Each structure stands twice: as structure tokens, then as C-alpha cells.
Amino acid sequence: MGMTAIIGSMPDVVLVERTSSIELAQSAIIHNRAEILIVEPHIIDYSSRNNIRNVFHNIPSTLSYSIIAIASHYTERDVLKQFDGCIELSDSVGRIEEVLRQCRSDEKPKDEAVAESSIYAMNEDLSERELEVLIAVAKGLQNKEIAETLNISVHTVMSHRKNIIAKTGIKSIAGLTVYALMNGLIEESAIK
Fold first, then answer.
1. Which of 42, 101, 124, 170 is least buried, going by the fewest C-beta atoms within 10 A?
2. What is the pLDDT of residues 74-131, one digit of tens each?
3. Is the domain 124-190 a CATH 2.40.70.10 member?
4. Where does 3-116 sit in CATH, by number?
């Protein structure tokens, strides 16, 4: 439906600013007293992702606002933990509205919303065998090679791959490889 349309459909929420600039986002918080900042974590410089609040250093500490991650790609656990809430592209309108309302209230979900996010909990959701298949895929092995290596059928490999895609939301081999690298499942030297 689109985030702008969802926000527009909420009677008690007003979209103040839509920008791809961190400076304009800070200005919207300061001048309009915006309560929520929705950010795609990947627009933040990689070196700054370890301290999200410092990215918005121009906002006075006297202003209270929440920062929500809109996760359209895999985002590292430590990065997501810094946000007050997390919205995934696959979330329903009801779930998005719930996260926005929670972040506006005094009972901010902080780690709860992030912990419930499937993006945050990906590693915990993958079985041991799925992790083995993921590692093999990331290393560049074909289904038949994976089946031979793990002593399982090609059909079983394909089932595990479908489960991995369903749990991570990552469909491409390149994306799965990056996921495996970012989670320390493989070393860069292991990639074919």
C-alpha cells in the first residue's frame, strides 16, 4: 500500500516530511516537533550504523522522538537493536499501525518490536541443517553438490532452500551469501 498511504489513513498521524536527507529529517524533528522518524537503515553510512542516535546529533536532547527502522533488506541484529521499533516490507497495515502507535506512546517497545521481527531473529529461526545448506549455497555449491556433501537428496536440499528463503526473505544467492558473511557463518575466502 505504501508507507505514505498508510500514514495518511491513520486519523491521529500526520506525515510531516518525506526525505532521503538526514539533515532534512533532523530539521523536521526540530522545527515540527515530529514524534517519529522512519528510517531505512541502509541510507545511513555503514561506519555510523553502530550508533544510530549519533547520526541525528543535531536534534536537541530535550526533544523526545522515536526512530523506527523500515527494513527492506537484511539488517544486522546490532543495528536493529538501536531502533525503537522495526517495520518490514511484508508487514500488514495493522502491524505497521501498531508499531507507529506504540512508538508514539510512553510504552515504547524498544527491544520487543525488534526481537519479534523476523529480520532480527533470522539465525534463531534457521535449523542446524538449514544453516548447513545456507553455508553451502554461500560457498557457491549447486544443489547436487550440496546433496552429496550433506548426504541428503536433491529434493531435501531444495526444501531446505525454500525454508531459508521463507525465513530470511532473501531470494538471491548473492543476498544469501552476504547474509552468511554478515552473520559470521562463512569467511570471505570460502566463497567460490
1. 124
2. 777 777 888 888 888 778 888 888 888 888 765 444 444 444 444 444 445 788 899 9
3. no
4. 3.40.50
| Contact between residue 178 and residue 46 where contact means Cβ atoms under 8 Å apart | no
- Rounded to 10 deg, the angle between the 173-182 and 154-168 helix axes is 70
Question: Which three cell numbers, joined as nine digits, stand for 104?
Answer: 508514539
Q: What are the φ/ψ torsions at residue 24 (nearest 5 degrees)?
A: -70, -35
Q: What's the pLDDT tens digit per position in 9-58?
A: 888 777 777 777 778 788 878 888 788 888 888 777 766 767 777 777 77
CB 134 within 8 A of CB 190: no
Q: Range(s) for CATH 1.10.10.10 in the chain?
A: 124-190
CATH 3.40.50 domain extents, the chain: 3-116
Closest C-alpha among 30, 29, 64, 165 to residue 39: 29
Is the distance from CB of 58 to CB of 30 less than 8 angstroms?
yes
**179 vs 23: CA distance, rounded Å:** 30
